Amino acid sequence: MPLSGAILLRLFIEMTVDRVLTDSGIGIYVKNADGTLKKDGTGNPIGKKISVRITDACDHLKSTHPQEKPGITSARKTLLNKSSLLSIQALHDYAHNSYTIPTNTDLKTTWDNSTKLFELVWT
Question: Does residue 101 register a pLDDT over 90?
Fold first, then answer.
């Protein structure tokens, strides 16, 4: 079913990006100017938005793997194009809006355009 595939793909993208940021020391939380973690009213650290995490992860991977810049750029453009049915926002919408249903083609294209990101992190 395309809907379950969309939810799993979004989760896999988020796990991939978070692994890059955690392993590199960049982190997944918002920091204050002095480098300390920014916290909400209850004292919990505030997480970066997924779009910021994707940008940070792709920028890091481009700097550490310059030879892979075209593939990383493709993943970034695919995932951050807000008007695209292939974006991280669209994948989020599929999980939270029962009227938004992906096609198999959309999911395969998102996977294909993000493959370099997955290969660099998980292999």
Answer: no
Decide: helix, strand or coil at residue 95. Answer: helix
Answer whether residue 63 shows pLDDT above 90: yes
* Residue 14, SS3 per DSSP: helix
What range defines the domain where residue 102 resides? 2-122
Total Cβ atoms within 10 A of residue 16: 19
Residue 11 is predicted with a pLDDT of 92
Number of domains making up the chain = 1
∠ CA 10-14-18 to the nearest 5 degrees? 175
Strand partners, 45: 39
Q: What pTM value is reported for the model?
A: 0.88
How far apart are alpha carbons 58 and 90 in whole angstroms? 19
Q: Look up residue 40 and give its amino acid.
A: D
Residue type for position 42 = T
Environment class of 116 (CB within 10 Å of its CB; exposed 0-12, middle 13-18, buried 19+): buried
Give the length of the chain: 123
Which pLDDT score, from 0 to 100, does residue 59 have?
97
